[in-house]
Amino acid sequence: MKRITGTNSMRITKNNKTKNVKNTIKTIYLGADHAGFDLKEKVKRWLERKGIPYGDLGNQVLNSNDDYPDYAIKVAKRVAKEKTLGVLFCGSAQGMCIAANKVKGARAAVPFSIKEARLAREHNDANVICLSGWYYHFHKATKLIEAFINSEFSKEERHVRRIKKIEKLKI
User: Does residue 83 contact residue 61 with C-beta atoms inside 8 Å?
Assistant: First the structure.
């Protein structure tokens, strides 16, 4: 697993414009199967350029026979344990999302817009986003990740209440 340290200096505002803000970020954990591998590798280089710390939980090599649940579970467990964020990559992003949501404390979402990435954090306290290696190009992926990591849970009573109800569903 590769880790780098640094601070994030980009912050997405509500009108989707960026401004410079020094913001220390915990390690962001990444995972991908073969269908998301190339996008994950590009995102890793982007995170390095931004100085955002990350951990790559696999796959470390392109393997067309790997299975997405293996990486979804690794990332979701680490995110829940360390109370940090994760990004998962697979073909459609849906399978990774389903698998990650099986882990207690993990709340994964598949955002299709910057607004959805932001609202997943603000309203649902999502801690993992799942991105499609088939449908997302690098630029869109990085914009979604920026919106996600630069948003925080609102802690509004209605959102807290709803998340508590969801957590009770975990068996």
Answer: no
Question: Distance between CA atoms of 125 and 95, rounded to whole angstroms?
Answer: 20
Chain centroid to Cα 122, Å, comes to 14
Query: Where is average pLDDT lowest: 10-19, 84-93, 100-109, 139-148?
Result: 10-19
Has 159 been annotated as catalytic? Answer: no
**For this structure, is 123 an active site residue?**
yes
How remote is the C-alpha of 89 from its chain's centroid?
9
Residue 168's pLDDT is: 86
Q: HEC profile for the chain?
A: CCCCCCEEEEEECCCCCEEEEEEECCCEEEEECCCCHHHHHHHHHHHHHHCCCEEECCCCCCCCCCCHHHHHHHHHHHHHHHCCEEEEEECCCHHHHHHHCCCCCCCEECCCCHHHHHHHHHHHCCCEEEEECCCCCHHHHHHHHHHHHCCCCCCCHHHHHHHHHHHHCCC
| Span 100-136, pLDDT tens digits | 999 999 999 999 999 999 999 999 999 999 999 999 9
Q: Taking residues 135-148, what's their average pLDDT?
A: 97
Options 123, 130, 137, 139, the catalytic residue: 123
- Residues 34, 90, 97, 130: which is the catalytic one? 90
